[in-house]
Amino acid sequence: MPVGNGFGVLVHLDRCIGCRACQVACKEWNGLPAEPLRFVDVWPVEGEGLTSPPDLNANTWKLVRFVETKMKYTSGFEDPYVQPFPYNCLHCVDPPCARACPAGAIEVTEEGAVVINPDACVGCGLCEAACPFHIPRRNEETGKYAKCTFCVDRLQAGMEPACVAACPTGVFEFGDFDEIVAKARRLKEQGMEVYGIDLPDYVGGATRWIYVISKEKAQVLKKTLPEKPVVKEGEYREALQSLTKYGGTATVLALTALGLVSWRAYRMKEKKAGGGEQ
Asked: Whole-prediction pTM value?
């Protein structure tokens, strides 16, 4: 059952050994298909590296990125370093993707999970455009968008998210959101680098997945996550925030129609491919 202000996770990056148990557990619990191995560098994706698949997608909701960075010591000396970085939807306290969705397909549950309802999704892509972390991804077969659900089905059954339960080194500390935030603040006061609190109002001021890492390795946060998670004013932000408030029925119907056209195109392509095999 939900506790207080919902749930949160404190991600202790210093404990991560890059075993990918969390990535596999996410696939297994959610019934997501495996993908061919393709090892790449991360952010930007280029060359050879340890990350596979290259990025999040509609069938990969959690990904362990291996980020090439530098460890900075107080003496000023720098060491090349590869930091494993488990990554998924951060579940914003006030998610812009949900505000942007004209079809009401994105729900924020009592547990704090930000969940896309595939039956209601029209494939318009406004959730992806509104997300400063570039999380929702389009399924090329269905035209629908998908992402991490915070294992809301497990939360509602009194269980931890699958990735949290699978981690052998205690990277993920799951609990009441207010307590997780309080612990993150204490760690920050103790000299740790923290990401996920004191963020812009665009994401509600915080995310429910909060990262913490030692100062020596703090460059990985700057390399992987936006310093200010906000979509540019002149492009999307105000339009997306006001869409569901002022767009009215006509806007929703128009975007729904666009989504249905996109969905029909995928279905026709699928039908044609199926007919060719017979």
From this structure: 0.82
